[in-house]
Amino acid sequence: MRIRTRASIGFMGLLLLALIATMRAGQAKTPKPVLVVLDKGDSELAIVNPGTLTVVGRVKTGPMPHEVAVSEDGRIAVATNYGEHQAGTTLSVIDLDSQREIHRVELKDLSGPHGVQFFDGKAWFTAEGAKKIARYDPATDRVDWTHEIGQDRTHMLVIARDGHTIYTSNVNSNTVTAVVANAERSQWTNTVIPVGKGPEGIDLSPDGLEVWAANSGDGTVSIIDTSTKQVKQVVNVGTKHSNRVKFTPDGKRALISDIATGDLLVVEVSARTLNKRVKLGSSAEGILMVPDGSRAFVAVSGDNKVAIVDLKTLEVTKTFVTGKDPDGMAWGE
Q1: The pairing of beta strand 76-81 with beta strand 65-70
Q2: Considering 97, 223, 229, 271, which has the largest number of Cβ atoms within 10 A of its Cβ?
Q3: What is the distance between the alpha carbons of residues 327 and 286, in angstroms, rounded to a whole number?
Q4: Are 28 and 317 in contact (CB under 8 A)?
Q5: pLDDT tens for residues 277-297?
Q6: What is the 3-state secondary structure (H, E, C) of the chain?
Q7: What would the mean pLDDT of 183-189 be, rounded to a whole number?
Q8: Cα separations (Å) of 300 from 12, 95, 279, 283, 325?
């Protein structure tokens, strides 16, 4: 009996040690769906259970990651390690199930990687310092395509559903570039579209008919007709320094974060009118729409928190903490 008791105690002790090790690592099983949040001040990606709002894992990235995208199958995240003053030259490729960085991709001359979006199994991203956009293939662990934009500080990008047009916001050139491919996507041509001052946030309407560029320097939104590749309207929304713009999944509203005031602006798309300003705190930055259209996550970077906005009531329902200076976020199914 003593031998069995000691054996039992030994086995339970091993289980306890394993549990303690897991808790110390701050890791639990990655949920599906999953929310990932980049904490710039920690150079870290937080893996969040969106139901309980608990951080189930943390993964170190390269210096000062700004934006992140999750692959269509929900298996990997790619974070752009922007660094300080565009000095970053790497991507962090993170396996979400094992909660570890599996590749640190050296970009060499593609400095200042920033906006990123998955399309057709690959991560497409901007490189501000190089004035280019590029594409990373996780299957080969290679950057397999680059394209010259030639504008100053190409910041964010959005890709049309058919994959034949990419729109970039070029902050310091006061332009948006429409990059259009031929049928085989073997050749790409640029159309440079003058917009307002300092376009940072950019999004494509769900119906594909409009691109909205939120101009950080003059409080306006430039609305581009995707058929003509020209600005058809400019709306003054009164932002002090707009950071991001995102359409709701139904396309009826657009949310704009104002980093200067800490507000989230809710704009009615068809009427082009401001519906509401939602006070969030200090430095409202990244915006993520939940695919079902029920809520939006907004990074309130100056307060080191993420706010949840109910898209029906347009009220903040909760806030939670992931780390220092949260910004870019992504959703995985």
Answers
A1: antiparallel
A2: 223
A3: 5
A4: no
A5: 999 999 999 999 999 999 999
A6: CHHHHHHHHHHHHHHHHHHHHHHHHCCCCCCCCEEEEEEHHHCEEEEEECCCCEEEEEEECCCCEEEEEECCCCCEEEEEECCCCCCCCEEEEEECCCCEEEEEEECCCCCCEEEEEEECCEEEEEECCCCEEEEEECCCCEEEEEEECCCCCEEEEEECCCCCEEEEEEHHHCEEEEEEECCCCCCEEEEEEECCCCEEEEEECCCCCEEEEEECCCCEEEEEECCCCEEEEEEECCCCCEEEEEECCCCCEEEEEECCCCEEEEEECCCCEEEEEEECCCCEEEEEECCCCCEEEEEEHHHCEEEEEECCCCEEEEEECCCCCEEEEEEEC
A7: 95
A8: 43, 26, 10, 6, 8
pLDDT of residue 79 exceeding 70:
yes
For residue 23, what pLDDT is reported? 43
Nearest CA among 107, 116, 112 for reference residue 78? 116
Distance CA 119, CA 146 (A): 15
Tell me the C-alpha distance between 154 and 294, whole Å: 31
Domains and CATH numbers, the chain: 242-333 (2.40.10.480)
CB contact set of 300 (below 8 Å; sequence gap of 6+) = 262, 280, 281, 282, 283, 284, 285, 306, 307, 319, 326
Q: Does 10 score more than 90 pLDDT?
A: no
* Residue 214: both structure tokens together: 């939120």
Whole-prediction pTM value?
A: 0.92
Residues 6+ apart with CB under 8 A from 100: 59, 94
11-43 per-position pLDDT tens digit = 444 444 444 444 444 569 999 999 999 999 999
